[in-house]
């Protein structure tokens, strides 16, 4: 499986010799994200010389996107924004990259294997499907996203959509001031590389060269696009359905045995609220942007709640207080709880409190969660249809992080 990688700045990755089987030339790669179980990889590749490879069959669904420079696919030369999708098992034509070219390179559901063939007319694998796609994305126009989320200002260029799995690759542009005031989780994974601009989010700053890979169901959000807008190449292994959470809280704690103020015992706890205490919190402009986002949702007839600035009432403490009150009211009357008197000398009924703690968490899991072929991998995408139970989010507080970016801003998960 691939780990949760959150806002790693490309410059913090080391260079490796590029794993481009059967090619002639010299290239290096930065391994943004790798699945060591099936070989899937997301790579940033630099070509130090002219590089080329003849016709052949890839062992994985393979994508090339030119960040800078020039690509020649089967005689068609494309500069910045050039894109090729070569399906697994389908013969592809030759590809060449000019010296100095920089690309994003993706392999999905397979490794770097490549079998040379005489021409793209050679027979493909028996179970191969789809065809090679070649496009110049710079010549494409931006389309407004049909469902723009919290507010207008989001645009898209579709590069590839798998008609069977729903896997898709697209360029996404967000205008300055576009804001998402909620957290979201999805039934599929989501990854992106920032090609232009800057956005602030709960995991830190997305600027040029930052990358993330979020497994399915990882909560993320609180986005605000900065001046000039922002553009990413974004991929998902299924339809990107949004399930929203707002005004979230996370509390954790423990008992420090040997690292208190004097090296001794200390009680402590922290939450997303505590992490924000003593700071001004969201700026006036952020709060104004959030309000616009909320107002837009309500105009569309969508459910929403007012934005609650952190450092206000702490719902985690309220929940703890309610649990303590419940324990006191039970007065030792629940199963396995101690009594301070004997039942032998009197006869009376203890009133049992009927408490609603919400649904059993197990009932919120996807019905295939622990039974299908991917039961070992909670983060992998699952097919989901309208009307099915919505899978609960994963609270991933320990993503792989970057040395120079991916700052935690204290606003929760």
Overall description:
By secondary structure, the protein is mainly beta. It has a domain at 5-139: Sandwich (Jelly Rolls), CATH 2.60.120. The chain is 9% helix and 35% strand. The protein contains 3 helices and 26 strands. It has helices spanning 272-276, 284-299, 315-330; strands spanning 5-9, 16-17, 27-34, 41-47, 51-53, 56-58, 61-68, 71-73, 76-78, 82-86, 91-92, 95-97, 102-108, 114-116, 133-136, 143-144, 154-161, 168-174, 179-185, 190-201, 204-207, 210-214, 220-236, 243-245, 251-256, 266-271. Strands 1, 16, 17, 18, 19, 20, 21, 22, 23 and 24 form a 10-stranded antiparallel beta sheet that branches. The chain is globular. The chain starts with a strand and ends in an 83-residue tail after the last helix.
Fraction of residues in helices?
under 10%
Work out the helix count: 3
Radius of gyration: 26 Å
How far apart the termini lie comes to: 21 Å
Q: What is the correct CATH architecture of one domain? A: Sandwich
Shape: globular
Spell the H/E element sequence: EEEEEEEEEEEEEEEEEEEEEEEEEEHHH
The largest sheet, given as strand count, sense and whether it forms a barrel, is: 10 strands, antiparallel
Low-pLDDT segments: 408-413
User: Pairing-aware structural class of the strands and helices?
Assistant: mainly beta
């Amino acid at each position: 499986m691939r780990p949760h990688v959150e806002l790693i700045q490309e410059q913090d990755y080391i260079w490796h010799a590029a794993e481009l089987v059967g090619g002639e030339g010299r290239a290096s790669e930065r391994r943004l994200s790798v699945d060591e179980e099936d070989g899937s990889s997301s790579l940033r590749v630099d070509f130090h010389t002219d590089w080329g490879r003849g016709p052949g069959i890839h062992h994985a669904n393979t994508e090339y996107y030119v960040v800078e420079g020039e690509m020649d696919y089967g005689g068609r030369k494309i500069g910045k924004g050039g894109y090729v999708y070569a399906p697994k098992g389908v013969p592809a034509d030759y590809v060449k990259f000019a010296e100095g070219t920089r690309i994003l390179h993706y392999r999905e559901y397979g490794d770097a294997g490549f079998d040379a063939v005489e021409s793209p007319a050679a027979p493909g694998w028996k179970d191969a499907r789809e065809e090679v796609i070649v496009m110049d994305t710079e010549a494409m126009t931006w389309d407004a996203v049909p469902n723009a989320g919290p507010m207008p200002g989001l645009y898209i260029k579709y590069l590839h959509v798998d008609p069977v799995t729903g896997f898709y690759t697209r360029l996404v542009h967000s205008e300055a001031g576009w804001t998402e005031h909620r957290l979201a989780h999805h039934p599929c994974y989501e990854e992106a590389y920032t090609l232009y601009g800057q956005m602030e989010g709960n995991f830190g700053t997305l600027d040029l060269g930052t990358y993330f890979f979020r497994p399915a169901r990882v909560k993320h959000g609180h986005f605000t696009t900065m001046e000039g807008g922002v553009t990413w190449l974004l991929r998902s292994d299924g339809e990107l359905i949004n399930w929203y959470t707002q005004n979230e809280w996370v509390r954790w704690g423990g008992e420090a045995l040997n690292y208190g103020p004097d090296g001794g015992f200390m009680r402590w706890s922290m939450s997303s609220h505590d992490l924000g205490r003593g700071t001004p919190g969201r700026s006036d402009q952020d709060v104004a942007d959030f309000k616009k986002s909320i107002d837009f949702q309500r105009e569309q007839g969508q459910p929403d709640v007012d934005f609650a600035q952190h450092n206000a009432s702490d719902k985690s403490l309220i929940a703890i207080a309610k649990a303590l009150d419940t324990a006191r009211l039970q007065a030792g009357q629940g199963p396995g709880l101690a009594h301070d008197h004997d039942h032998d000398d009197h006869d009376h009924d203890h009133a049992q409190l009927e408490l609603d703690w919400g649904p059993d968490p197990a009932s919120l899991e996807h019905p295939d969660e622990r039974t299908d072929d991917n039961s070992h991998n909670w983060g992998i995408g699952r097919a989901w249809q309208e009307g099915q139970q919505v899978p609960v989010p994963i609270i991933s507080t320990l993503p792989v992080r970057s040395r120079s970016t991916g700052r935690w801003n204290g606003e929760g998960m």
